[in-house]
Amino acid sequence: MSELFLLTLIAPPGHEEPLIDWLLQYGHASGFSSFPISGHSSNPESLTLVEQVTGRKRQVRFDVQLTGSELEILLDRLKSDFAGSAIHYWAVPVAKAGRL
Fold first, then answer.
1. Are 20 and 34 in contact (CB under 8 A)?
2. Could you report the per-residue pLDDT of 44-67, keeping only the tens digit for each?
3. The whole model's pTM is what?
4. What is the largest CA-CA distance in the chain?
5. Which end of the chain has fewer CB atoms within 10 angstroms, the N or the C?
6. What is the rounded distance in angstroms from the CA atom of residue 66 to the CA atom of residue 94?
């Protein structure tokens, strides 16, 4: 069995629909989850005035489970197709996964 990873993408709300369409077209991903989140930062330069007052920045989170080789392909395509989009990402190994 190939090593599995969980890729997390944090994107501005304006990229939600384009990322959903993009991930649905991505042939290797078996599925993904998305949900609204609030980002918090101690760096006020990264926040609008309204975000500074409310103390949060609205964002969208995507979680995608992939094999190591699929992860590299997806990241290469993501970096190309969404260059300059302010999408933040990280990937961590999945210790166990399955269905009950």
1. yes
2. 676 667 666 667 788 999 999 999
3. 0.86
4. 49
5. C
6. 9
